[in-house]
Amino acid sequence: LIVTLDTLLNDEQLTAICDALMTAEFSDGQRTAGWHARLVKQNQQLDRSSAMAEDLRQQVLSALQANALFEAAAYPDTIHSLLFSRYQPGMEYGRHVDNAFMGGNASSGKANRRFRADVSFTLFLTEPDSYEGGELVIEGACDDQRYKLSAGSLILYPSSTLHRVEKVTAGVRLVCIGWVQSLVRDPAQREVLFDLDTARRSLFAREGKTIEFDLLSKTYANLLRQWSE
Ligand code: NI
C-alpha cells in the first residue's frame, strides 16, 4: 500500500522548516546507512543531535500525529528516526532496502530502544520544479513507481520494498524521511484495514449509520484486534 498525503504541512509550517534548513549545516549521509546501503548512498543530512533538528522533528511529528489519513494508512505504534536530508547536484541514493531495525543497539536499555521499520515515509520540502531529477522510485514486481511530490506532501510506502532516489542534476532536494513501527506489521493486512476503513467511512457519509455500516465497523474492529500487536 502506497499512500500520498497532499499538504501535510501548510505554507506557514513549510516556510518555517525550510528557512531553518537554509542556514543549517549538513554532514555526509553515510553515517546513518547500513553497511550495504552505504555503497549507494550519496546525500547529506542534518545532525540528529542538534537542537534545531529536535525542534524540526517535533514540528513534523505533530503534523503527522494530527493527520487522520496517516493514522489510517500506517497504524503507528511509534514514529521514529526522523531525519532531514539534502541532495545537491550529483547526489543520489541507489537501490536499497531500509534496515529492519533502527536506533539503539543490541544491549541497549529501554531509553535507547530499537524500533522496527514497517512503513517508510518521505516528506518533500522543496517544490518539484526547483530541482531536476531526485524522484523517489519504488520498485514493484512488474514496474517501478516514480514520485516527485509538491512541497509539503508526503508519501508512505512499505519498508520492505527496494527503492532509490534518482540523481539530482540541478537545484536542491530537501526532504524529511522517517519510519513507523506499525501496530499492524504485515503490509497486506494494513491494506485490507485501510480499504475497509475507507469503504465504511464513504458508506457512512452517503447513508449514515446503517446495518451495513455497523457490520463493516464490526469486521474492521475485529480484524484490527486479531492483526495488531
Ligand atoms: Ni530507503
Question: Your description of this structure?
Answer:
The chain has 229 residues and is an alpha+beta fold. Helix content is 31%, strand content 31%. It is built from 5 helices and 16 strands. The strands form 4 sheets. Strands 1-13-9-16-5-4-2 form a 7-stranded antiparallel β-sheet. A 5-stranded antiparallel β-sheet has the order 3-6-14-11-12, with no helix packed on it. Strand 11 (136-139) and strand 12 (144-147) form a beta hairpin. Helix 4 (187-207) packs antiparallel against helix 5 (211-227). 30% of the residues are buried. The mean pLDDT is 94. Bound molecules: nickel (II) ion (NI).
Q: Can you give me a brief rundown of this structure?
A:
The chain is α+β, with helices and mostly antiparallel strands.
By DSSP, the count of extended strands is: 16
How many separate helices?
5
Unreliable segments of 5+ consecutive residues: none
Mean pLDDT: 94
Topology (SSEs and partners):
Blueprint: E1 3-5, H1 11-22, E2 26-28, E3 41-42, E4 44-46, H2 51-65, H3 68-74, E5 76-87, E6 92-96, E7 101-102, E8 115-116, E9 119-124, E10 131-133, E11 136-139, E12 144-147, E13 154-158, E14 163-165, E15 168-171, E16 173-182, H4 187-207, H5 211-227
